[in-house]
């Protein structure tokens, strides 16, 4: 009441003070204070806001001014006097802060940067769930966790902290899931940190330096700018650092060894100087697998025919295949390093963010797989053992420059480049066995490949707002280049047997292969928005995209007479140029109401393909015209309750590897050939989201659903002969669909004790052709999960997360062969604070698979890890830790997959039991929080 009365009183007497008292203080004003007033939610610069300077000891008004059209202000303040700055604006909460007299002693100009105001309605909407420490807040679509309320222990990493937050899961590979969706970005103070690589941020940043963890769906830059949702969202975590950690520097040095085989060394430093940020890290590790992010998987994939295409909707589509490292298999030796720098200047009108990363990865490992192939008249089992020795090396740079040209326009330029080197050596041995338990074929195959890849992607985003509110124009464009080159050998010996087990045929292959591929593309999107009437807007957009792929593959057989690879194999040699040109235009209407907002629109897309065979001198052209509708509705009946439904129609282009009539015999028993008559696929995607947060009881209900139906889906046609050889070709089919629902409910049992339940039913239908016969495969799975834990700053913390899943698959070509099994994956974490600064932690990651008629072996894994550490010094700078990985020596990488007419299980070699003694030194030199 006192503060509100004072604020109202000051507003009323402000003109009187200006008339009588302002001249008395004008003489002493020899320090100029400047800044900018901004809306904290919409990031709109507020004009005509009142900025007043008060004397701190008695609140006497000394000076006042109003902000300009761009929200900026400058005002004189007395030197050597402690003053208070107060900012007022209609419908916004007042802002008050102290300007210490020490800051004014040696300055004639003080730039305090941006001052953010929050609307009163937004403040009322913000709900504090845990009143004692504000542990969880919900701000609109953002869930915010107060980091200090979830005790992660001294010197813990951000990854340790995330594991304790309700609704967030971190698996053994370090992959983060929030609210049922995989987290793609981790930001620090809203900015990219080492190219937003989640693993680097969460594993190397200390938890006690984080103030808040914010989880939200990050909209595209265009959607944020125009206010019209374009459906592009990325599940994102933003880490806001504590203010006192943004001055000076902090970092750590860490090393561990078992005095025999396993060791690791790490160093990281972060430096902050006003608006400048610098960070660097280096690691050398063979104790765990550093999983590759999605971009690395694309770059390091085994298929050199991976393609980068520009879609007819203006986006870049990068086709990718999983590689043998997708699940963290093998025994790695990893060396990584990185540098990042960011700065803001010119009153925050310009800023830059640059990152360099280096990665060198050597992996040796063994993978055993067993696959059941279901055919119209029979089934057979294929068993393969793979021994691999692979090397990956990558240099990557990423830079972003943003320029606020004036109060109405801005420019953002992003450049990403990488240089990759790879060396693969793989030995495969295997055999196929019929359902009568007779051998069909045997294989002994060696493949080697050495290659390089250079990538460059440039993005330019320009936007401008006009005087009329809601009228905007923007242009977003991408230019990309990629060059891939590789050479390698294929040496294979295959033997084929009859039904009685006698050898009937043998195949020997000794070939040298070269692959060269150059991809270039440009796309752009021009968007104009216009307010029609109150709360209603119109968006007009035009998109274009042009891409070209020049790919050449050569295969040479070995000449036994001279030992050289100089005999060309015409059927495995080709040179293609593949061009895609696309254009589209559309309109979208949007209504923004208090409780309901919706949008709908459509576009027309025209895409043409040109495939030119450079050797045969043949050409093929095809053109598609499609409608591209979108619709979305959001209903917010009350604060913290929201329902949304969206629909998007989009197209998918065939890749060069799918469309070129070229045989790929890398695996002679599984040959892939292209299909030049492939059509464009069309996807219908429906999304549902429901969220409800109960404040007083800390109850959280979240439901999301997805359903995808594809016309002209790109599927496969396989022909399997009696010797077990398979020829695959991409074809178009109709009737493919998939969907899933994620449901999560959590509540606070008693303060600091949280329980939760989840369920994820999913289904899909996949149509393909086997030996000319249509095959319809229906897969269903349903997952149930429970969560129970205790978070506090006391001696004992724990949480249990357990999931049980039922899997079912049936193919129409063999309805009697039904695959069904249960899997159970509990995860337990326990931490305890002991006397004398000792800390104990144990976790268990268990995977249990039900046996089937095909997978009869034991696939259960009981992975137990434990550690005991002690911290030294008053601020816990030093840490000595003894840990054991895989106490029961059972760690294996097991994965089951059900797809079309085959069911497979792979068991991959992974790091097993080891003991480690490590020491960590944490250093910092930080300023104190501002007054």
UniProtKB/TrEMBL annotation:
Which InterPro entries does the entry mention?
OMP_b-brl_3 (IPR041700)
Q: Where is the Outer membrane protein beta-barrel domain?
A: 464-757, 773-921
Name of the molecule in the record: Outer membrane beta-barrel protein
Q: What is the lineage of its organism?
A: Bacteria, Pseudomonadati, Bacteroidota, Chitinophagia, Chitinophagales
